[in-house]
Amino acid sequence: MPTIGIILGSTRPHRVGDQVARWVLDRASRRTDAGFDLLDLRDHPLPHLDEPMPPSLGQYRNEHTRRWAETIAAYDGFVIVTPEYNHGIPGVLKNALDYLYAEWNNKALGLVSYGASGGVRSAEHLRLVAGELQMADVRQQVALSLITEFENFSVFRPGDHSVRALDTMLDQVLAWTTALAPLRTAPAVATSPARPTRTDSP
Length: 202
What we know:
Elements: E1 3-8, H1 17-28, E2 35-40, H2 63-73, E3 77-83, H3 91-98, E4 108-115, H4 120-132, E5 136-145, E6 150-151, E7 155-156, H5 160-179, H6 181-185
Parallel strand pairs: 1-2, 1-3, 3-4, 4-5
Antiparallel strand pairs: 6-7
């Protein structure tokens, strides 16, 4: 049975994302086709990326990187819960994504965003990052408005439409997780810099 990690992408004091992430976990845990765990970035502190080699090479030098890599490698797919900061994702989330490469590859990704406009620009930013990490982001997403789904901007009250969107998104994540399983078990394809082109005659 596949295991899906639900990543809480905000570490700010008084964040509302923990309410959202617990809602996602509670709803997901009712399913019988996968296991789900909450991965709170507060529990996985990482300094600003400090690895000397590109993550795509997999040559991790630091213990905190190796711990994070081991955590992420254990999952078959992910749901990321993210707020929108200045039309993008939080720096702490981008940093956590940037630390690794192969551990993200060929895994499905569902998005739950929140903000004044539902966090949709944050989700679009995250889709760009996910594409470079060879993740398969599913079409359905959950976009939660701070104005309509948070009482006094602080107490999460999801609407029925958001529950339906979450269920559909989880269906898609599990379908893609299953479809990508052969790629996750196949031998990794080595990456190397492009060979220089000769301009002189032989």
